[in-house]
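Protein details
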Amino acid sequence: MGEWKKSGCILCAQNCGLELEIENNRIVKVRGDKDNPRSLGYCCQKGLKIAHYAHNGDRLYYPLKKAGDRHVRISWEQAIGEISEKLLSIKEDHGPKSFAYVGGGNVGGQMEVGIGLRLLGLLGSRYYYSSLAQEFSNVFWVDGRVAGKQGLTSVADAHGADTLVAWGWNGWMSHQEPRTRLLIKEFAENPRKKLLVIDPRLSETAKFADLHLALRPGSDTLLLKAIIRIILEQEWEDKKYLEDHVSGWEEVAQLFSGFEAKRAVEEVCGLNYEDVVETARLIAQTKSCIHQDLGIYMNRNSTLNNYLLHILRAVTGRLAVEGGQIFPAFLYPMGSDSDERHPKTWRTVKHKMFPVLGVFPPAILPDEILHDHPERIRALIVSACNPLRSWPDTLAYEKAFHALELSVCIDIAYTETARLSDYVLPSLSYLESYDTTCFNYSYPEFYFQMRQPVLEPLSPEAKEGSAIILELIKAMGFLPELPDRLYGAGQQGLTSYLGAINAYFLENPQHAKLAPLILAETLGKALGSVNQALIVGLLINSSKGFKAGAAAIGYPPDITMAEKMYQDIVGHPQGLILARFQGDNFQMLHTPDKKLALSIEELFEPLQAATIDKERAELDLPEHYPLILHAGLHHETVANTMLRNPQWNGSRRWATMLMHEADAGNLGLTDGDKAEITTKASTALIEVEISPHAARGCVYIRHGGGLVYEGSKYGVNVNELVQSTDRDEMCTPMHRRIPCRVEAVGE
């Protein structure tokens, strides 16, 4: 028998609590952790297969350097020395805009980002690219305008709702809520609750719905306008809420005057008008929330649709309230405030694109490398991220990596991105290290889990990603020589260390901006982990609201608070509640009047321009590309690119293209046949799967294919079928609307 240890899943942003049985440093059994205060023992198939993440044939054991068409082993000393020297040389020759930092953690851990962004700043650059801008830029931008500051990202409070609207969200397969399948079952079985699904296809979630609106693909804008117009016509709006909590409503209300809701619903959306009226009534007159997903985020009119969703929430009084849409509490925000109206906000050299939440969109990164401007990007550090499979237009990314003067990949596995990089540096897996994420998504209670090592490092040469970047910072001379007393102070406890480091900054105020790095270097040595030191730093520098919430549940409101919280965190590997924020959710807002700023003038014209006739015309597909490819599909058989061994799915069918029976029949295709799918970008051969979950006129290919595992490629890489130009005004890939054609392939 092995030893059971508590941890958390690192395969999606829910980070469900897990218990792992460890025997001979291997995971032999996995179960949900009933002691986890958020997941309560729930986990999905991906979490149960987490051993395939830790134990896989592509694990990295030591640093590598590209030599011709292969990689050779080098020492850490050589790797850090050569990389740091090249970074400084590129900066000196071409300036700070020549460097970008990519990834920096994923759904499993984000402590490295704090160090990676410091490296970026020390080199003078602000070019940070991550998957946050792959699908969420539009909603984050809207959230920032409405809430007064980017970083106040909103989420659905589905567990507190009586009516749940799943708009473009297939929760049964993609989760995104704590204990999602139990939540969906509760809505299906409880007569006092209603589940509404708005999705062109009969998804697995739609099978549980009280009402399924199978709208025409891409017609979400008109449906949203129609629902809002119906609510205003019926006088179902929450007038008191609008008066008390919303600014700018009078301007916004005029934008819906005269809109022909019935005509839009029936002629363009293809829905029964009475069903839409009932949907509007339930949203307006019950404790409702709307959970949107990729059907909104990566579809046409994404920015406008996210705005319309917030207007709908505001007009019905369901924004910043329990059971509606809330602004969750954070120990640290998901990103920085990077409002493009500020003159100091950087823009990219080629596309003049601004960041959202401090993050630039991955869809344009190849273009920012592959041009002849003297300030083009020439060097990348890619960490805990696999752009060569996870981001759009793989063919463009391949060209871009070949054009770089320096590419460094920090990862646990020899990924497709690692294969094209000049240097490959082995990091500890998330089950061999300390880390946490910012996906707490709760209010007023603040849940927190520091995942602790449950496995000994597979390789003695592997390091925390944050520690690797810290070594680069030190090698480039950005960290001053530090006194021995700081290294020793951490051994005496955190309160003692705080006294020592505060005294150091009083003596050396010029080094205050380097505080996170000094903490990582000195306290990190005492704790044996840079990530642990960074978590302590977050506790020390937490907001007044967080500290008041921590004091409210019993933590001492003095200098010892951080040490007591940290001791509790270490003593509760299953996670715990660290604070209860005081005041209602509106207190999270950064608007001057603590009201929702609903008037976004830049979107007034697009909202008015989305007329019935214009939308109908734009929904037509080109004759030679009559079908819509959904490039990527949230599904229980998909785990991004983190589970590399295809055996994790066992006998489950996954490397297929889903099609509606009628579409397949028109093309002479049957289940199991091979078909050729063609887009503007490329062509692929794939097996057809006739599925009741496919909408007519659409085909679906799961993401996560095309991986090279132990030298063999399996599945279709759907990002090869997408061009980087298939994007919207925020440079978000339109993965839910890629025009394509499908043809039968003869024997």
Summary: The mean pLDDT is 96. The first helix runs from residue 45 to 48. The longest strand covers residues 683-690. Residues 358 and 448 are 24 Å apart (CA to CA).
